[in-house]
Amino acid sequence: MASNPETLEWTTGLYDCWQDPSHCCFTWFCPCITFGQIAEIVDGGTISKTAACCIYTHGMSWLNGAIYRSKLRRLFSLPEEPYSDSFIHCCCCVCSLTQEFRELVNRGIHPSLGWEGNVEKWKREGVEPPIVPTMYR
Fold this sequence. Notes:
By secondary structure, the chain is an all-alpha fold. It has helices at 21-29, 31-42, 49-58, 61-76, 85-91, 93-106, 114-125.
């Protein structure tokens, strides 16, 4: 398969969970919270982390995880690798969620602050937001 010249690379690997051991352990026990934090950022604050957490907990978590992983990849033009989004979330949700969390952090977004917290941080620092959410992703 030819690579897309506009596709960027992940800043962290899928199996680099232990780059942040405390967050990896947290996600192992509370994946819904990590998912909620990621979803709020990826959706630009249109869904709260609490609502996203509930959706993840009461729905098909692997499917919701795959949907938001795809959204995150589109935001940053990241490749779908090493496997499909649905396969990764179905078989290794902790690895996937921690990679997505680290990706946001490595790009200057702190999911634990929530969308509004990040917007305030960017304003204080006088920097442009690294992402601009759109309604149709």
